[in-house]
Write a structure and sequence with these properties.
Distance between the termini: 26 Å
CATH topology: Arc Repressor Mutant, subunit A
Radius of gyration: 17 Å
Number of helices: 6
Protein name: DNA-binding MarR family transcriptional regulator
Shape: globular
InterPro entries: HTH_MarR-typ, MarR/SlyA-like, WH-like_DNA-bd_sf, WH_DNA-bd_sf
Largest sheet: 2 strands, antiparallel
Pfam families: MarR_2
GO molecular function: DNA binding; DNA-binding transcription factor activity
Strand order of the largest sheet: 1-2
Helix content: 55-70%
Structural class: mainly alpha
Keywords: DNA-binding
Length: 147
């Protein structure tokens, strides 16, 4: 029988450890916390997004997301502009400063992932773990399963 508790324990502990080491490296080298970095990556990937889109991407509340975006905006890394498709919301996009800090941070992020994961797991294992986690994530995106 598969030990789901061990899988859970290893998954959570590894996630916490990996988050902390990447967060520390980003803070030390770029003065950027991982939470902000993840939002900047989302904005760079999509070009812009509403606060609601960011919240949905990361599974966090709109209110909490709005507060984080306020802080990122105050730092000069993103800006809100009018949403041409919905006057009730605004679009958040990277500023030139945001692009610059993201470029620097991406190098740190990729280096840390290579060091912490790429030197331990081979490509086939990385692909298998990625596929398994993506399957779990996708399977539980239905509204009834978000509880």
């Amino acid at each position: 029988m598969t030990d789901l508790k061990s899988l859970f324990d290893n998954l959570i502990r590894t996630e916490i450890w990996l988050w902390n080491v990447v967060d520390n490296a980003l803070r030390d080298e770029c003065d950027l916390q991982l939470t902000w970095f993840e939002i900047l990556r989302f904005l760079a990937r999509d070009g812009s997004g509403r606060v609601q889109d960011i919240a949905a991407e990361f599974g966090i509340t709109v209110g909490g997301t709005s507060k984080v975006v306020d802080r990122i905006e105050a730092a000069g890394y993103c800006a809100r502009r009018a949403n041409p498709n919905d006057r009730r919301s605004s679009l958040v996009e990277l500023t030139p400063t945001g692009h610059d800090v993201l470029d620097r941070a991406m190098a740190v992020f990729e280096r840390e992932l290579q060091h912490r994961i790429g030197t331990v797991l081979d490509g086939q294992t990385i692909a298998a773990v990625t596929a398994a986690l993506a399957a779990l994530h996708t399977a539980h995106q239905a509204p009834a399963d978000r509880q």
